[in-house]
Design goal:
The complex is a heterodimer of chains A (265) and B (218). Chain A is of the alpha+beta class and 265 residues long. Helices cover 21% and strands 22% of the residues of chain A. The radius of gyration of chain A is 20 Å and the shape is elongated. In chain B, β2 (51-54) and β3 form a beta hairpin. The chains are: A alpha+beta (265), B alpha+beta (218). At the A-B interface, α4, β5, β12 and β13 of A face α4, β5, α5, β6 and α7 of B.
Amino acid sequence: MMSFVSYIIFFKKITKKGAKKMTVINKELCNGCKICNKFCTVDAIHYLAEEKKCYIDQDRCTECYVCLRQKVCPRGAIQPVELDSFYKQFQHVISDPVETHGVTGVSGRGTEEVKTNDVSGRVKKGEVGVAIDMGRPGMGVFLRDAEKVAMAIAAVGAELAPQEHTPLAALMTDLKTGKLEDACHGYHLLSVIVEAKCKEGELKQVLEALQKVEKEIDTVFSLGLIIRTDEKGQTKVLDTLDELGIPQPHRGKVNVGLGKPLSLA
Amino acid sequence: MTHSLHRSGPIESQKKDFNWFMYQTKGVNDVNIKPKALEFIAAAEAVGSENWGDVKSGPRTQYKTEEIIDRITDKSRIRGVFTKREQVVEFLKIMKEKDTGLSVVITGVLSEVLPACEEAEVTPHSINYSLGVWGKKDNLPDDTTLSITTMCGHHMIPPKYVEHMMDQVKKGRLTADEAAIKLANFCYCGIYNQVRCSDIISKTVNEAAEKEVASTKE
């Protein structure tokens, strides 16, 4: 768990631009036209027939700011109100790709993972990086489900990435177990990455743990494995997938090794 | 982030969909990146990148090149789209020659990307392999909607808006190209493939129209 001082420092660092705003619909301006309904990425905008107005489900809203940036309401009824807690700010910074995470310095989901691995050497030969993009594609994720997945893979030996590398770690009370602060469980994010690595020989048990925990969560995740390949982009590590009945991948994000200084690790 | 990795849809459609990325590494080569960013942009435009952008400014489908370039800072994230393997090969050849020292990443179908790397004589260092979607998949939108929404990996495109665009095209109020641009403008990064999106919309609307004609005849 972060100390109180670290908590405050992190809170100030989480965004570069000061206080951010929560999205609400001003009922005095709303005329119930429902144009906004089609613009919510997680279906959090609803029409209340009794009032003939629209409203935003604050438990479901991820503060992605699409409805604000796209200026969807012809009457300007969708308005920002200050994000008044650390978790609301975290929710927004991770859900809005325009924001830069204050600790990792990375926009989007806040992590570099494979994209700079030729320089950072974050995942080395003999290791497998595991990037679990929770809530993707487009369902969103409550942090309680991100915790379930993080704890499931940590329990079988996956080493969770620290907060200098990945934002979710800042909410972990124990990086060894993946347990998150209880107070964050009910927050809904557009997506968040559970990032870890394991030895090649441990990959099978990590995948088996994911096959089990995927039945226990109320959302989806998209799974990526980061591997140091041979010069042709091939690897024997993926043979493990056949043993578990997981289809071989046809898509990949290929770091072509032009970064410098080049990591040979 | 893995935001270009997990695109979905028929493989033949995905084979015309590549993303390129410039990446600076925090604490190593992330200072004064603008001159290098300009090299990437010049290379991408030289080979005809169909869309590109900076997440801090927006996509080429919405803003002029000069507007995006003017706003490049060390926090910028420059990336874009190709629709042909030949473009990937030429881009990689240029970037290898330029030797900027920044990381270069290409996302796409591996049976296309890896041969492109070989042809360009660059050596893959690491790959993030997509193992697809796991978990509670029953509540996901239909496959066609997903093939459109997943082209913005940050999920800025609402599924209901995709349905609305399809409907507008079906009713003749928008062309497929116009609808694709409207969708592309939600994706601030500039990695949205509006060419592929237009193809998907056209195909879907045409198939629906043919089914309607067929059922009317019955």
